């Protein structure tokens, strides 16, 4: 039997499809945590950028939008309506 016939027989019998599953599941096992890490990194950069932008504003501008300089990080991370444990 030639190699071509063996390959066709294996493909028609589902052997080739079964042989590919471990590689695909291995890729998913590696890619899923990497995707989560990249998403967490992007979120961390977004938060740090927002904190830096607000910190660059003057106290007068911050007062105009209703936040204090000490509240910047809490507001960026949790939102304006988040419960403040210090109060």
Report on this model:
With 87 residues, the chain is mostly helical. The protein is built from four helices and no strands. The chain has helices spanning 3-12, 15-55, 59-64, 72-78. Helix 2 runs antiparallel to helix 4. The longest helix has 41 residues, at 15-55.
Task: Explain briefly what this protein structure is.
74% of the residues lie in helices and 0% in strands. By secondary structure, the protein is mainly alpha-helical. It is elongated.
Average pLDDT, all residues: 78
Identify low-pLDDT runs: none
Largest sheet: none
The coarse overall form would be: elongated
- C-alpha termini separation: 81 Å
Radius of gyration: 27 Å
Q: Give the H and E element order.
A: HHHH
Total strand segments: 0
Measured by DSSP, the beta-strand proportion falls in under 5%
Structural class determined from secondary elements: mainly alpha
The number of distinct helices, counting runs of at least 4 residues, comes to: 4
Q: Report helical residue fraction.
A: over 70%
Q: How would you describe this structure in keywords?
A:
87 residues, 0% strand, mainly alpha, elongated
Topology of helices and strands:
Elements lengths: L2 H10 L2 H41 L3 H6 L7 H7 L9
Helix pairs in contact: 2-4
